[in-house]
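so the lab meeting is tmrw and i was supposed to have these ready like two days ago... anyway. pasting both below. for each one the top line is the aa sequence and the line under it is the structure tokens. i havent really looked at them closely yet so no promises
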Amino acid sequence: MRVALRAVPGVVLALWLALGAGPGLAFSPDEPLGDAALEDRARALHEELRCMVCQGQSIADSDAALAQDMRAIVRERIAAGESDADVRGFLTARYGDYVLLDPPVKPETYALWFGPAAVFVAGAAIAFALLRRSRAGARRAEAAPLSAEERRRLDALLDDDT
């Protein structure tokens, strides 16, 4: 049984729109928004959000597919009327606080904020303790005088060599 395409124009239109061919239904990652103020907000958010597959790049700087998808999400949500905080909240709920290039200071992010400093302080303390211990050991070895028995044995050894 053959169905003519002309007989089901609604199905063809629905398929065409579902595949993303419809104008204005889906945002491409770098397609600017019609309103300049909205586009400025989107670009500012792109600079604040981290690409989850790149090393410390914002989604504005990344060419990764995930960064492109995130840019499109930001533009779609701004075009839908959401505030910047709502967009950040949506992406944070999806990817966690790590998606923010400047994550908030809270117990869950203490490791991000204070971890590097703690590792540096611990390393410096260990280095200081090892240096102090080696200097104290060297001073003890130099300062300890020979006992009478040690002196006698040393003199005997020196006399035997000559």
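ok protien two:
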Amino acid sequence: MLNPDFLSRLLRMAGIVLLFSCQYLSAAETPARVYIKNVDIFDGRNETLKKNHNILVEGNVIKSISAGDAGAPDSGAAVIDGGGRVVLPGLIDTHGHLSIVETMDKMKDWSWERIGVLMGKRAETTLMWGFTTVRDLGGPVMGLKQNIDDGLVPGPRIFPSLAFITQTGGHGDFRAWTDPHPRWFDETANWERLGYYRLADGVPDVLASVRENLSRGATQIKIMGSGGVGSEYDPIDSVQYTLEEQQAAVRAAADWGTYVGAHLHNGPAIKRALQAGLKSIDHGFGIDEEGMKMLVSQGAFLNTHFAWNHLVLEADFLNEFQLAKAREVVSWSDNMVRLAKKYNPKITYCVDAFGPDELFNSLYATEFRARSEHFSPLEILRQATSGAAELLEQSGKRNPYRQGKLGVIEEGAYADLVLVDGNPLTDITLFTEPDKNLRVIIKDGIVHKNTLTN
């Protein structure tokens, strides 16, 4: 459990006060056509802004993009005058946990009645940070996704992995010492029952778990491939799942046209995962030079984050064993960045935010600042838009959002747009104060926030 002093320190470190006291519009209130005029466009790829342009949204896609005074629609469209501000694609977080709304030790015995309400609140908070899409890498979010897609709850598009797939004693085995093993006793811990994780040992069990998640709507699969910081029993250097088990997961996912990603920290575990054919290496701090070469040659993605490195050693919900693991992981970070600069892998924008609101918001704010210590604003924006979208596209036909492109502003793309005060190509930290600087947020053609007075 987080104490008030720690939460206060987090907010001071992040330098934010979130009010979200803006004008919200529901789907019923948003016209079918929205004309955004007089904006400079960052299209998700190019380093040069398209100056003085206009965007016409019809339904949930971008109908046209025009320059100057051209392209004005006839009557019937809602008009938003951008006043020369910058508009960019809705941001994409490639590693989220929308169902983990408190610290895990506190949530273990919670019921759905409590969790569901907080998940809806978390989804809306995520959207107000400007993130219109989240690849959720573990947790029972299918109901939330359906409610968002149906317009019942404001929130981002969700690419769900559903239950963590973990070996016994692995990073995703969240049982307490006193919880029985479900394979040996006719009992199941609450979090496994609710769908937060699934214990799977051996090729047949891994195959069944992957297929179960896919049948329930997973767009990609998440396994736990190494020790982790937040787990209570596994050492950080442990390599989890045999090569054969990982290859089985990859085969089962490929049969459904999608891919497998993994929680991975240490070098040997990363190389085993790449050997097995995994496409998404999440965290990845302990990667060595051989592993980085493998990752780049195979076209895999490195989904790493930096805010936790600033905050984790201050976290008073970790015990000494967990803190020791955190110190080791943080010590690997500089070498990972050095190798990334040398070999230029595909890197996406990943926050790995979870926990209570104060921690969640602090991680989102700190990630922009911490990432800017290593990457330019342009690199960060690409990581959070077109680069992240490339990873999402790896789910093929399991991708539930195939009507238009994500992560770019172009004709025919989804109308996921964020209008900001300031120029994010010169100051990425403007995203640390979303209530102040994110003036318009549109997702799927629906205006969810508009604080401009036209």
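from a quick look at the 2nd one: The longest strand covers residues 33-41. Residues 16-28 have pLDDT under 50 and may be disordered. will dig more after coffe
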